[in-house]
Amino acid sequence: MGTKAHPDPQGLLIDELKLGSSSAYKEAVREYSPGMLAVARFYMDHSSAEEVVQDCWVTVIDAIHKFEGRSGLKTWLHRIVANRCKNKLRSSNREVATDFSESLDPELADRFNATGRWDLPPKLKFHESADTLMENDALSGCLDKHLSALPETQRSALMLYEAHQHKSEDVCNILDISASNLRVLLHRARQKIFLMVETFQETGKC
Amino acid sequence: MLMCRDLADIASDYIDGELTSRQNLSVKMHLMMCKHCRTFIGNLRASTEMMKAHSSGRPNEEFMRRIDERVAEALKTWEPEDGDKN
Ligand SMILES: [Zn+2]
Predict the structure, then answer these.
(1) Closest Cα partner for B55 from A128, A158, A138, A197?
(2) Which domain covers residue A118, as residue numbers?
């Protein structure tokens, strides 16, 4: 690789964190905490997850000088959270229970006949695009409600993959699941959202 | 023959480009003939996009502020690795 033409903004932030700059920490906390929380939520309930993320930031202060930048700051932070969660679970003897057996949502599976054709096909094309969603408060609120009702494992996988744009390998690594299990989690979560938007569009109800 | 149910089963893999080229081809063939599955794939893709737009970047300020406080507290007693000790 040649010399860098532009300074790397993440590299700058990391340098400032290593120097203990409180404004750099504020910036990093805002940038990375939502993703860290998504990781922790895979393992535990909301308030314990928030606590873990807070504790992790304190750990980061002492550990950041060891960060070498091979994995990217986001992935590094997410691994710290995952390890802390796993240790906590180990000490309290709790296990993450997840069902990876079926990739088709039962409600959707019911909509096919015995020959595997649609019995109850999707009726409408969704007219909401991702861009107009933000202007539709009712739909946005409904999405919130359904996202929080998703099983933790599905939601975390979804958040890390879609919202925080991790590569599959990273998500598997952080959450300690196989690639095929991640595929199941993602697909199950998307079907739930599909069913929700469909109901919302047909009935106007959440 | 790929049936609608089979297609629904692997729809996310299709959207994310995770299918083998043979599977991909049979999905494409099915979609050419089946309007319902075309709608389904379109809607599942739209759901995915909505999710992405909805869940990115809406941090809870109260939570962030509590972290800021913890960090500020910890930084008070923190010393850089090669820093001077007094
Ligand atoms: Zn079909």
Answers:
(1) A158
(2) 106-203
